Amino acid sequence: MADEENTSDLFPCPYCAELIKAKAKVCRFCGRTVDPVMKMLEDQREMPQQRKVNIIVSDGVAEYRSSSSVHITSEGAPKKRSVYILLAIFFGGLGVHNFYAGYSGRGLAQLLIFLFTGWLIFPAVAVGIWVLVEICVITRDAENIPFK
Q1: Same-domain pairing of 22 and 42
Q2: CA distances (Å), origin 91, targets 64, 88, 100, 121
């Protein structure tokens, strides 16, 4: 009788057909994700530009909304390239253009170089060249959204 209860909460893995627990998130035999929510989140991380999945949980029920195009929120709206270029020209040494585009590491590096060595000629020239290269090369923000 105990064996019947144990087999009732088992189901075959959709990938390798081995019996696993119904509450399993990952198959212990093949290592693949069998939980639908975790699988959708993994797929979203692997293909961020192809499909976005919104999961809305209300009253303990998960609702999935999927779209085939890129879902842009108000926070992820495309930034203007002209603003990026103007910020780079006027405040490039301070890294303001990188903060605008979401590249906070680059912006912080430029700001610290300016603050600690801004009075020296060579670091100022190096940061100026760095800014000019970024103006020519950077066409997307940190979230990989193209500038408008």
Answers
A1: no
A2: 43, 5, 11, 17
Would the pLDDT of 137 be above 70? yes
Taken in order 146, 137, 44, 55, the sign of the CA dihedral is: negative
Three-class SS state of 58:
strand
Percent of the chain residues topping a pLDDT of 90: 43
Alpha helices in the chain (DSSP H): 2-8, 36-46, 81-91, 96-101, 104-117, 121-137
Identity of the residue numbered 100: Y
Q: 113 lies in a domain? A: yes
Query: What tokens were used for 18?
Result: 């081995």
CB-based contacts of 109, cutoff 8 Å, min separation 6: 95
Residue 1 has pLDDT above 80, yes or no: no
Residue 114: closest CA among 128, 98, 94, 139: 94
Helix axis angle, 121-137 to 81-91, nearest 10°: 170
pLDDT over 50 (residue 74): no
**Residue 77's Cα: distance from chain center in Å?**
14
- 146 in a structural domain: no
**Rounded to a whole number, what is the distance in angstroms from the first to the last CA of the chain?**
66
